[in-house]
Amino acid sequence: MPRYRRPRGGTVREQGPFTIEIEGLERLTDRIEDLPAEVRQALFKALKESAEAVIAEVKGKVKVDSRNLQGSVKARYENNKLRAEIGWWDQDDGYSIYQEFGTKRMPPNPTLGPALEQERTRINDRVKTEVKKVLP
User: Fold this and answer.
1) CB atoms within 10 A of CB 126
2) pTM of the model
3) What is the pLDDT of residue 12?
4) Burial class (CB in 10 A: 0-12, 13-18, 19+), 111
């Protein structure tokens, strides 16, 4: 039976996944539910465009050895909510945390965090553009 071996390169700095918290999100969610379906669809379209932009940015900057991380970064969307999660969920992608945060012996090579920060400056314009298309 194979035994578990710790990966080389030291230990991971214990940090969780990226979380972006929006103040007043619950109040906003309640107000979004009252919007017409066309506006909610426009908001979801803007969210999806932003998520795809983050994925494209990550794919362009992630360290490429086997192309595994480059090809497996994905977005997950929650039904009926304006929420997207972007990251690596395949079992083979567990080392993505080492790339993002580094170890004692390996410097960090962050890609997801900077891509999220970059998109944060663009999402307002995406939302405005999509909502203007459906409002008279």
Assistant:
1) 19
2) 0.71
3) 42
4) buried
